[in-house]
Amino acid sequence: MPNLTRRALLKASAAAAAGLAAAHTIFPDGLAAAVHTMSRGRRVARLRFGVVGANHSHIYGMVNAVARGGGELASFHIREPDIAAEFAKRFPQARRVSDERQVIEDPAIQLVLSSIIPIERAPLGIRVMKAGKDYMSDKPGIITLDQLAEVRRVQAQTKRIYSICFSERFEVPAAVKAGELVKAGAIGKVVQTINIAPHRVHPPDRPDWYWDPNRAGGILADIGSHQFDQFLYFTGSTSGEIVAAQVRNVNHPEHPEFQDFGDVMVRGNGGTGYIRLDWFTPAGLPTWGDGRLTILGTDGYLEARKYVDIGGKPGGNHLFLVDQKAVQRIDCSAVELPYGRQVVDDVLNRTETAMPQVHAFLATELALRAQAQAQHLRLATVNRDL
């Protein structure tokens, strides 16, 4: 087309983008897959989203996931000035507002994200759903069984999405790849999952609510919600029960209600699981925790060394497959993280491709029941001066 000038091309592109936007209004389901429409060199957003509350740094990964999926961060409300300033520095394109209602009630916003203090996440999600918006919470998305019952009621009434960002599965390439291999039958039928989730404490950086199980949920409800999500997902379980659970404060006597160790045995209709959680990552490890996932199958097993391979290769996302033929180390560097894209798809199409709603609630319920049923061990604390 020798007579097509650059100006004409730009006009044509803009017209095409406008046409797509108009068509999307008329046929939203049919054109929701138009993810990366380009206009004047910029991606056209598939939806606009907002943030209310950012008390945990997980919010940055959540925002980035939705942005990768085609979302545009429009505005945010964060009540703490220091947290708001840092957030604004990272996302200068977003408008800071003085009231959460300016986000929740904005007709242009379809999805609200939050990593507010855990005790406040469910009440916020209920307000969001009642306002006709979908909601993505940091984990733990709900920290009491009473909250869970009310969230379930409102979600069923409003038909909105209440997604919980289980980032240890959604945002870890090795875990995503492990899921693909399990679904492909690489290890046969899954028998058991073992999930080890150590974390590192940085006391100067931790606010008061972090040490209080009544506000943070306790170790099994908080960190453990990740692991119950993975147990259900990899075993294919649609029901589950807690076999045994215990928690302990080993090394933090100055915070007597805090739990720095916990473990659980769980079983479902697709397999069994063991979960161990702790806050004992030593300073010598080059990352915050040596998280590991082992998935045992009838024909082999998978092990994901998510964040570090001690004594092995540098970096994270190390996945090993052991089957009837060999031992393989699988490169996960090119694995797509689909969660953000799928959430955007689900908001636009009213589908459940990122995570079925019943799964999010069941993983949460198991974590909360484990926390409620856990035996509190009262052994002598460690003498840290030794």
CATH superfamily of the largest domain: Dihydrodipicolinate Reductase, domain 2
Q: What's the total helix number?
A: 13
Output the strand order for the largest sheet. 16-15-14-13-9-12-11-10-17
Question: What is the count of β-strands?
Answer: 17
Shape: globular
Q: Work out the strand percent.
A: 15-25%
The CATH topology of the largest domain: Dihydrodipicolinate Reductase, domain 2
Largest sheet: 9 strands, mixed
Please report the distance between the alpha carbons of the first and last residues: 80 Å
* Class from secondary-structure proportions: alpha/beta
What gyration radius follows from the Cα positions, in whole Å? 22 Å
CATH architecture of the largest domain: 2-Layer Sandwich
Summed over residues and divided by their number, the pLDDT gives a mean of 90
Number of domains: 2
Low-confidence stretches: 1-41
Question: Under the CATH scheme, which class of the largest domain?
Answer: Alpha Beta
SSE arrangement, N to C: HHEEEHEHEHEHEHEHHEHHEEEEEEEHHE
Detail the topology: elements first, then pairings:
Elements: H1 6-26, H2 28-31, E1 38-39, E2 42-43, E3 47-54, H3 58-68, E4 71-77, H4 81-90, E5 95-96, H5 101-104, E6 111-115, H6 118-130, E7 134-138, H7 145-158, E8 162-165, H8 167-170, H9 173-183, E9 190-198, H10 213-216, H11 224-235, E10 240-248, E11 261-268, E12 271-278, E13 292-297, E14 300-305, E15 318-322, E16 327-331, H12 339-349, H13 357-373, E17 375-377
Parallel strand pairs: 3-4, 3-6, 4-5, 6-7, 7-8, 9-12, 10-17
Antiparallel strand pairs: 1-2, 9-13, 10-11, 11-12, 13-14, 14-15, 15-16
Helix pairs in contact: 3-12, 6-7, 11-13
